[in-house]
Design brief:
This protein has about 220 residues and is of the alpha+beta class. The protein contains five helices and eleven strands. The protein has a six-stranded mixed β-sheet with strand order 3-4-5-6-8-7. Strands 9-10-11 form a three-stranded antiparallel β-sheet, with helices on one face. Strands 1-2 form a two-stranded antiparallel sheet. Helix 2 (about 70-85) packs parallel to helix 3 (about 110-115).
Length: about 220
């Protein structure tokens, strides 16, 4: 992928898996899985990456998951563990995205997360602003389903500046969901992991206080 750097985040599995790619030069890194998500990572169904922004001392956490086809209980378990893991990261901007293999409205775990006020269904919320229905993302059937989605926690949600579903990409069955985040110097009290390698980002302009991130999650097949 020209101009892209793949971030090694998950093990290779027989069923595909999840991964991240970042624009070349963008300060990003993979984050090892925690106890809550390690078993999902080992199955290729969870990954965590961080992207630095602002002066390089703050980060956006991105969690990608792959739900289990035709197994709602297993998918709900992945979602529950991912949300519990996200809660341990502190008051930082977090996005959860991926092929959930369930429509958000049909998931008790995701519905509870939205009702708590701590999480936002990005596609649904953005569509409602324009009195539209959220776009379908999976064309395995003629009608299509919205099983690929992005959820933002309350910190990241205020920085959303655009959401769209791409219909022209040459990806079989699934349509990528693209979200734009405008991360500015509006979170002065973000709590970050102490191990974050700030020293590696010397090329960043310290005066630059915002960065536009165009992030694509692609489900890797085979």
């Amino acid at each position: 992928m020209q101009g892209q750097t793949r971030i090694k985040t998950a093990l290779r599995t027989e069923n595909g898996g999840v991964a991240f790619s970042a624009a070349t030069g963008l300060p990003a890194r993979a984050v090892p899985p925690g106890e809550l998500t390690k078993r999902h990572w080992e199955k290729g169904r969870f990954a965590h990456a961080q992207v630095a922004y602002g002066d390089g001392r703050r980060s956006l956490s991105m969690l990608s998951i792959y739900g289990v086809v035709s197994d709602e209980d297993a998918t709900e378990e992945i979602l529950a563990d991912t949300l519990s893991y996200a809660a341990t990261l502190g008051d930082v901007p977090i996005l959860i995205a991926g092929d959930f293999n369930v429509e958000p409205e049909e998931s008790p775990i995701l519905n509870a997360a939205v009702q708590s006020g701590k999480w936002v269904d990005v596609g649904s919320t953005w569509a409602k602003q324009y009195a539209q229905q959220p776009a379908v993302t999976c064309m395995a059937s003629k009608k299509g389903r919205r099983i690929d989605a992005i959820f933002a926690n309350s910190v990241a949600a205020v920085a959303i500046s655009g959401v769209t579903v791409l219909t022209t990409e040459s990806i079989p069955t699934h349509r990528p969901v693209v979200e734009l985040e405008r991360l500015e110097q509006r979170y002065p009290q973000l709590k970050l992991p102490r191990t974050f390698p700030v020293a590696d980002w010397s090329a960043m302009d310290p005066k630059k206080v915002e960065v536009w991130l165009k992030i694509k999650w692609c489900h890797l097949r085979g």
